[in-house]
Amino acid sequence: MAAGCAGDRIAEATAADTGPGPIMVRADPVPLYPDETGPAVLGKLRYRGGLRLTALEPRFGGWSDLRIADDGRRVTMISDRGYWLDATLVIDATGRLTGLERARLGPLIDTRGRPVTGRFNDAEGLAARADGGYVISFEGQHRLWLYPAAEPPFTKAPTPLTTPPGATAQPANGGMEALASLASGDLLVLSEEMGTGDDHAGWIGDGQRWEKLTYRAASDYKPTAIAGLPNGDALVLERRFSLLGGFGGRLVRVRAADIAPGRLLKGQELARFESPATVDNFEGVAIARGPSGETLVVVVSDDNYQRLLQQTLLMMFELTE
Predict the structure, then answer these.
(1) ∠ at Cα 52 (47, 53), nearest 5°?
(2) Cα dihedral value 176, 182, 185, 186, nearest 10
(3) Which tens digit of pLDDT belongs to each residue from 265-282?
(4) Of 126, 83, 130, which Cα lies nearest the Cα of 103?
(5) Among 94, 99, 190, 257, which is most buried by a count of CB atoms within 10 Å?
(6) pTM for the model
């Protein structure tokens, strides 16, 4: 249960050392611009509030992707150390994201029901299935696992899906970073590092049969997440990093008609996440339906468990296109 108000909202309780359990998460509001003087718009995105999430629990952090339930309130995230977190988004009367409550955290489990560890725990992409289950893409030991619907989530052992052709040759830290279920029912997967230049390897299929395609990112950017839109389009989140420029991001829209085997996917840019706007290592993107039918876009940043240097940001926007 949450306590306090904006700026001091707490998802109460403590996380167990093993297995799923409640966790205390502090959610402090963050402005789109640190000095609060910039416009509340990035390209085709209108800012609807954001949070800086912190927790004393050492397992908290490294959030690589997220999905939001059909109710527009329950959010589920996965981390690159093999944990999941779900919580309820707090939305105020004006439609802004102001807090987080009823948070739970637990370990992802392997096919034998044991917590994933070591090179098997780097969860990167998350796709929600119509039956309430999830597909997760892992890198390091490149694979896709299908978790059946469960309460709490990820507490039933997963079933391995067929690995896309050539995917095992991806770099250990540059694998199937971006994953989503499309309106067609197909899974779309993009590799962070495999490819040539700005063209990244990708696959589309049902989890058993796969066809190759290619995704073209902007120069110096790499695909990190995908969210499927109800009309079959896909939103792709791209990230860049440099020692001088720090982190940046780009959100593009790929039309449904262009998503097909053998195609070169090139998206239309919707927004860029760049300084002086509030930005960090954005790795996950999800969509939700707002109370008036508007399309909401939610992004999360991966702090790489470097809490003194990076932060976990959860930011919500309205797609104005």
Answers:
(1) 130
(2) -40
(3) 999 999 999 999 999 999
(4) 83
(5) 190
(6) 0.93
